Amino acid sequence: MAEIGFVYSPEAPPSERPAQQSLRYFFIYREASVGWQYDPATNSYLYFRGNRPHVDAATGAQLQFKNVVILEVPERPIPNDPKGRIEQDVIGEGPARIFRDGRMIEATWRKAAGYAQLYFVDANGNEIPLAPGSVWIAAIPDLANLTVEGGR
Length: 152
What we know:
mainly beta; 0% helix
Protein backbone atom coordinates (compact mmCIF):
# COMPACT_ATOMS: atom_id res chain seq x y z
CA MET A 1 0.00 0.00 0.00
CA ALA A 2 1.08 3.56 -0.65
CA GLU A 3 2.69 5.48 2.20
CA ILE A 4 0.89 8.77 1.42
CA GLY A 5 -1.89 9.45 -1.04
CA PHE A 6 -3.88 7.22 -3.33
CA VAL A 7 -2.65 4.80 -5.97
CA TYR A 8 -3.49 5.77 -9.56
CA SER A 9 -3.66 3.96 -12.90
CA PRO A 10 -4.21 5.30 -16.44
CA GLU A 11 -7.71 6.22 -17.56
CA ALA A 12 -9.68 3.85 -19.76
CA PRO A 13 -9.33 4.66 -23.47
CA PRO A 14 -12.44 6.17 -25.13
CA SER A 15 -13.29 2.84 -26.80
CA GLU A 16 -13.70 1.20 -23.36
CA ARG A 17 -15.90 3.90 -21.80
CA PRO A 18 -19.65 3.33 -21.57
CA ALA A 19 -22.04 5.80 -23.17
CA GLN A 20 -23.92 6.41 -19.94
CA GLN A 21 -23.75 6.01 -16.18
CA SER A 22 -25.54 7.91 -13.45
CA LEU A 23 -25.64 7.64 -9.71
CA ARG A 24 -27.64 9.26 -6.94
CA TYR A 25 -27.36 9.06 -3.18
CA PHE A 26 -28.90 10.66 -0.15
CA PHE A 27 -27.83 10.99 3.46
CA ILE A 28 -31.06 11.12 5.47
CA TYR A 29 -33.86 12.38 3.22
CA ARG A 30 -34.46 10.80 -0.18
CA GLU A 31 -35.80 14.11 -1.51
CA ALA A 32 -32.44 15.77 -0.70
CA SER A 33 -30.39 13.57 -3.01
CA VAL A 34 -27.32 14.50 -5.00
CA GLY A 35 -26.34 12.97 -8.30
CA TRP A 36 -23.61 12.39 -10.78
CA GLN A 37 -23.80 11.97 -14.55
CA TYR A 38 -20.87 10.32 -16.31
CA ASP A 39 -19.52 12.17 -19.36
CA PRO A 40 -17.52 9.76 -21.58
CA ALA A 41 -16.01 12.61 -23.64
CA THR A 42 -14.16 14.02 -20.60
CA ASN A 43 -14.18 10.74 -18.64
CA SER A 44 -15.55 12.71 -15.68
CA TYR A 45 -18.60 12.74 -13.43
CA LEU A 46 -20.71 15.90 -13.46
CA TYR A 47 -22.22 16.91 -10.11
CA PHE A 48 -25.92 17.70 -9.57
CA ARG A 49 -27.73 18.94 -6.45
CA GLY A 50 -31.34 17.96 -6.72
CA ASN A 51 -31.77 17.86 -10.48
CA ARG A 52 -29.76 20.99 -11.22
CA PRO A 53 -26.11 21.21 -12.26
CA HIS A 54 -23.99 22.37 -9.32
CA VAL A 55 -21.66 25.10 -10.55
CA ASP A 56 -18.55 26.77 -9.21
CA ALA A 57 -19.50 30.28 -8.05
CA ALA A 58 -16.21 31.76 -9.32
CA THR A 59 -16.08 30.16 -12.79
CA GLY A 60 -19.68 29.23 -13.51
CA ALA A 61 -18.49 25.77 -14.63
CA GLN A 62 -20.29 22.66 -13.46
CA LEU A 63 -18.29 20.74 -10.86
CA GLN A 64 -16.77 17.55 -12.25
CA PHE A 65 -14.51 14.85 -10.85
CA LYS A 66 -12.56 11.95 -12.34
CA ASN A 67 -13.41 9.72 -9.36
CA VAL A 68 -16.44 9.53 -7.09
CA VAL A 69 -16.03 7.37 -3.98
CA ILE A 70 -19.02 6.52 -1.77
CA LEU A 71 -18.30 5.13 1.70
CA GLU A 72 -20.82 3.45 3.99
CA VAL A 73 -20.02 4.96 7.39
CA PRO A 74 -21.87 4.20 10.63
CA GLU A 75 -23.37 7.28 12.22
CA ARG A 76 -25.30 8.18 15.34
CA PRO A 77 -26.81 11.31 16.90
CA ILE A 78 -24.51 13.39 19.08
CA PRO A 79 -26.00 13.09 22.60
CA ASN A 80 -27.73 16.24 23.84
CA ASP A 81 -26.87 18.22 20.70
CA PRO A 82 -29.54 20.94 20.36
CA LYS A 83 -29.10 21.02 16.56
CA GLY A 84 -29.53 17.25 16.13
CA ARG A 85 -26.14 16.74 14.49
CA ILE A 86 -24.58 13.34 13.90
CA GLU A 87 -21.21 11.72 14.54
CA GLN A 88 -19.73 9.55 11.77
CA ASP A 89 -17.40 6.66 12.58
CA VAL A 90 -14.66 7.26 10.03
CA ILE A 91 -12.04 5.11 11.78
CA GLY A 92 -12.25 1.41 10.97
CA GLU A 93 -13.49 -0.13 7.75
CA GLY A 94 -16.63 -0.66 5.75
CA PRO A 95 -18.05 -1.15 2.27
CA ALA A 96 -17.48 1.39 -0.49
CA ARG A 97 -18.16 1.95 -4.18
CA ILE A 98 -15.63 3.59 -6.47
CA PHE A 99 -16.77 5.17 -9.73
CA ARG A 100 -14.18 5.83 -12.41
CA ASP A 101 -14.08 5.45 -16.20
CA GLY A 102 -17.86 4.91 -16.24
CA ARG A 103 -17.68 1.80 -14.10
CA MET A 104 -18.45 0.89 -10.52
CA ILE A 105 -15.91 -1.01 -8.42
CA GLU A 106 -16.92 -2.68 -5.16
CA ALA A 107 -14.40 -1.94 -2.44
CA THR A 108 -13.70 -1.80 1.27
CA TRP A 109 -12.47 1.42 2.85
CA ARG A 110 -9.94 1.21 5.69
CA LYS A 111 -8.60 3.87 8.04
CA ALA A 112 -6.63 2.76 11.11
CA ALA A 113 -6.54 6.08 13.00
CA GLY A 114 -7.39 9.75 12.60
CA TYR A 115 -3.93 10.57 11.25
CA ALA A 116 -3.72 7.43 9.08
CA GLN A 117 -4.08 7.14 5.32
CA LEU A 118 -7.51 6.20 3.94
CA TYR A 119 -7.26 3.09 1.72
CA PHE A 120 -9.63 1.50 -0.77
CA VAL A 121 -9.03 -2.24 -1.21
CA ASP A 122 -10.53 -5.11 -3.20
CA ALA A 123 -11.70 -8.48 -1.81
CA ASN A 124 -8.07 -9.72 -1.74
CA GLY A 125 -6.82 -6.70 0.21
CA ASN A 126 -5.12 -5.09 -2.81
CA GLU A 127 -5.30 -1.32 -3.05
CA ILE A 128 -7.64 -0.15 -5.82
CA PRO A 129 -6.17 2.50 -8.12
CA LEU A 130 -8.09 5.67 -8.91
CA ALA A 131 -8.05 7.56 -12.21
CA PRO A 132 -5.54 10.44 -12.27
CA GLY A 133 -7.26 13.66 -11.28
CA SER A 134 -9.83 14.93 -8.84
CA VAL A 135 -11.53 12.71 -6.23
CA TRP A 136 -14.89 13.32 -4.52
CA ILE A 137 -15.50 11.25 -1.37
CA ALA A 138 -18.94 11.03 0.23
CA ALA A 139 -19.80 9.21 3.46
CA ILE A 140 -23.39 7.97 3.69
CA PRO A 141 -25.04 5.85 6.40
CA ASP A 142 -26.08 2.98 4.11
CA LEU A 143 -25.13 1.95 0.57
CA ALA A 144 -28.83 1.13 0.11
CA ASN A 145 -29.15 4.95 -0.25
CA LEU A 146 -27.13 4.71 -3.49
CA THR A 147 -28.77 4.13 -6.88
CA VAL A 148 -26.68 3.39 -9.98
CA GLU A 149 -27.82 3.14 -13.58
CA GLY A 150 -25.76 2.21 -16.62
CA GLY A 151 -22.01 1.96 -16.78
CA ARG A 152 -19.79 -1.08 -16.89
